[in-house]
User: Fold Raffinose/stachyose/melibiose transport system substrate-binding protein from Nonomuraea angiospora.
Amino acid sequence: MRLSRTLRPALAGVLLAAVSVACGTGTGPGGGDGKSLRVQIPTGPLAGAMEQVGKDFEKANPGTVVTFEGVDSGSSRGPNVALLSSTGTPDIGYLQRSTGVWSALLKNKQLTPLDDVWKAAGLADKYSKSQVDYYTTDGHHYGVLYEQLLINPVYYNKAAFAKAGIPDPPDHQVASVADFESMVGKVKAAGYEGFGVGGSSPYDLGHTLDALLPTAVPADDYDAMLTNFKPGSPTDVKYTDPGFVKVLQTIQDWQKKGIYQNGMLGMDTDQAQGLFTSGRLAMLQGGNYTYASLKEAKPSFEMGWFLLPPLTPGRKTPFDAFNGDTLVVPAKAANPDLAKKFLQFFMTDKYQVSVIAATGSLPVFSSIPASSLSNLGDLVQQQLELSRSVGLVNIWDSTVPSTLGQAFSVPVLQKLVAGKLTPQQAAQQYQSALEDLQSGKVSGASD
Assistant:
């Protein structure tokens, strides 16, 4: 059986894996034909652009056939562990570092070291120091980071703002929470829904927290929160401190005040985007990666964007940088050498511009000048430029281990917004999770 290069869902339990093995497309570690390469990639704008990479690789390696297999966001966050651990695994797998999939595979020795790929592609010199550190485990590299994302720009309907009498936010900043809540009140009075968040998604409420946290606490405390889960960390910063509680209080208050769209907790990000592009929702939380999907929907209005307000007056809201979209070679890959060859082929300046930037994400190589990234799109180009003045911080819920970050945090936030927890109760749950990590009761070393 020869799979086409067109994308197909990679997961239906592990049934696909079993079918692949039976058909001879995945026969276990090193047991492949050395010519058939199965590459798992996330569904979305990247998928189409990767088609060209596959064609280029086939041309450079005659006789090779590349098949791309799509995995959606939900499946990549847990169920994908079973596939990537099986003998039916693709030769190259996709995961996000922050979801616990990485640590589960690494703990069970299900990832192939990629030190030779890093050396051949010069990745240690092309990534930032923090990215190199993040992708180094016991002196080895088990994945390649292929894009960087800017989290937390809020897209808005310019026609809705004009109708509500709201000027474009100067420098893409909103001065205060009160100003932001006033903006929502005005667009609702003009007949629109307010601020869109995918409340049922496994990450979007976490991004609201990520956007608010850097300006709710002192910069040193924020930095401590990114590392104080490690046993023996010399810090007394706690999640029950007033700044973090203020973040939780704000998120809950926005539900009580009707800031979010109606039915927010029952909507995923696709539904929230649909509400926005239909013209009924005035504002949508997103990232630089959202813009390509929004444009693809061809809304009837012009879009703008801004950052959520600071929780400490006078501070400017920075961008959150997510460094987690990762390609790996599973230990049971049929063609690991061919997989490594493909990763080396793909991780170049050429494809960072023609594939990554062209689909609305940011290249991870610091050597690529901004002047060569006009294909990002106008709004994303603006975001990149502003990020260099207001700054970037490592996104909290994807930097700390999943047992404290995104996988743990979002269900707590959903209960908070639903009124099942007070901000103080939620803060105590975060603190307890932190203490479990600090004590070594729960491992977070490889997340």
The chain has 21 helices and eleven strands. The CA atoms of residues 91 and 339 lie 6 Å apart. The two ends are 37 Å apart (CA to CA).
